[in-house]
């Protein structure tokens, strides 16, 4: 299977802190990969490099054959780990904002997803709870017809019911032609979603593999393997 993302030897240093250390990773087209690692392991830094928000000090990243920039932003739908909508907006404005920004945005899909999440158009952004924010942001991001979806900690800080709804929305809206990259340290809740997993420690990949194969080889769930590696 063709690789949609090729990461070769990237290093990223903030002042004197090395967040990524000669990290290499190829991600094949189609499928869901979990990037797993504890706080500070470099997950967000890696995602910011993939989305073109940061540049590595060394190494190379290719997404669909191009370095992160205008083209890659047009094919990558990104859920940041924080809110990206304006406080003055309501949900309808947020839909309009995505429609204006992204040619691949499917408004009908967004409306269906928002209904599934129990959100309505008139709700004001500044009045949403953390879980509602997460549901809104995810609904918008999943409503783009993108080649690559990058979800940074999609269920962090939300209650178990909202978590299940978010996971359901991801599963139901995932299209097998596209590639999904999800970072998390909430492995138990998310492991059934992953085709492949990569364990990140100290800015490098400690272990990578097919989730099912790893479960068989190690005789344990990915969550237990995570605890064994990072515990
Ligand atoms: N802007 C910054 N300036 C200085 N150091 C930073 C900056 N951003 C991240 N770091 C450091 O780089 C390392 C990797 O951080 P990063 O945010 O990528 O980790 P993470 O795996 O996403 O963590 P978390 O799960 O807590 O979000 C950490 O040691 C962090 O302190």
UniProtKB/TrEMBL annotation:
Keywords: ATP-binding, Hydrolase, Nucleotide-binding, Transport. CDD domains: ABC_DR_subfamily_A (cd03230). GO terms for molecular function: ATP binding; ATP hydrolysis activity. It holds the Pfam family ABC_tran. Transmembrane segments: none annotated. Residues 5-227 form the ABC transporter domain. The keyword Lipid biosynthesis does not apply. SMART domains: AAA. Its EC number is 3.6.3.-. This is Putative ABC transporter ATP-binding protein YxlF. It comes from Tissierella creatinophila DSM 6911.
């Amino acid at each position: 299977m063709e690789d949609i993302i090729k990461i070769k030897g990237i290093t990223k240093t903030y002042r004197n802190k090395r967040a990524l250390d000669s990290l290499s990773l190829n991600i094949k087209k189609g499928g869901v990969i979990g990037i797993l690692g504890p706080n500070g392991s470099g997950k967000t830094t890696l995602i910011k490099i993939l989305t073109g928000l940061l540049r590595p000090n060394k190494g190379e990243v290719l997404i669909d054959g191009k370095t992160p920039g205008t083209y890659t932003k047009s094919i990558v739908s990104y859920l940041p780990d924080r809110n990206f909508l304006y406080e003055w907006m309501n949900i309808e404005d947020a839909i309009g904002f995505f429609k204006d920004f992204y040619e691949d945005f499917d408004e009908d899909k967004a409306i269906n997803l928002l209904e599934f999440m129990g959100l309505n158009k008139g709700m004001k952004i500044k009045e949403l709870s953390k879980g509602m924010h997460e549901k809104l942001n995810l609904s918008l991001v999943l409503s783009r017809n993108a080649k690559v979806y990058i979800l940074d900690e999609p269920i962090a800080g939300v209650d178990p019911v909202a978590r299940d709804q978010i996971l359901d929305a991801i599963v139901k809206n995932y299209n097998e032609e596209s590639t999904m990259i999800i970072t998390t340290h909430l492995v138990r809740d998310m492991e059934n979603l992953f085709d492949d997993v990569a364990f990140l420690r100290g800015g490098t990949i400690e272990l990578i593999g097919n989730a099912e194969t790893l479960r068989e080889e190690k005789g344990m769930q990915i969550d237990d393997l995570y605890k064994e590696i990072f515990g």
